[in-house]
Design a protein that fits this description.
The protein is mostly helical and 188 residues long. It has a domain of 80 residues: Rna Polymerase Sigma Factor, Chain: A (Orthogonal Bundle), CATH 1.10.1740.10. Helix 2 packs antiparallel against helix 3. The chain starts with 10 loop residues before the first helix and ends in a 6-residue tail after the last helix.
Length: 188
């Protein structure tokens, strides 16, 4: 019989406990599955996100005995696994961004006249943003989206991707400059 763990129990403690009691790992799944799935869905699409999120936790479960217990937060580790899985689907991700860029607005039949101008402007920006995301180097895009969508720090994004924090910051800077240039917000 498994006893419930309080929310304040650290991820490393739960993972370590799961070495002897594998069912304990379900607490990690319960804590992070929704955000891992949402991140994968934003990067790819809902159908692939289901598979990516499920596979992330299968891999994490299989590799849990190698988890660095000095790291109390498992999020960067999980996002690293997710990023590696998404890398296998790079072409689908780039196709999605290109399709969004061509599509413009999501809903061309806007019924609310007072929002049409805002929707058109947002649609144009979304289209340009999607095109910029499609053109950014894979590593730069990974760092940018881990920080923007997964809300990781540059240190956590670097850890997730297995790169130094300084490299993550450099990639983030390059990605931001590219996005700013495409959106016409480059102030240099």
């Amino acid at each position: 019989m498994s006893r419930a763990l309080p929310a304040q129990v650290g991820d490393a403690v739960i993972i370590e406990q799961s070495w002897g009691e594998p069912e304990r790992f379900s607490a990690i799944f319960d804590r992070y599955y929704p955000e891992i799935h949402d991140y994968a869905a934003r990067r790819l699409d809902s159908a692939l996100a289901d598979d990516i999120a499920a596979e992330t936790f299968l891999i994490a479960f299989d590799k849990r005995t190698g988890y660095d217990l000095a790291r109390p937060d498992a999020r960067p580790w999980l996002y690293g696994i997710t990023s590696n899985l998404i890398a296998r689907h790079r072409r689908a991700e780039v196709r999605r961004y290109r399709a969004l860029a061509k599509a413009g607005t999501e809903s061309p039949m806007e019924d609310h006249a007072d929002r049409v101008a805002g929707v058109v402007d947002a649609g144009a920006r979304k289209s340009r943003l999607a095109q910029a995301l499609a053109e950014i180097a894979d590593g730069d895009r990974d760092v940018l989206l881990l920080i923007a969508w997964a809300e990781l720090t540059s240190e956590e994004a670097g850890s997730a991707l297995g790169i130094p924090a300084g490299t993550a910051r450099s990639r983030l800077h390059r990605a931001r400059r590219k996005i700013q240039a495409v959106l016409g917000e480059d102030e240099s």
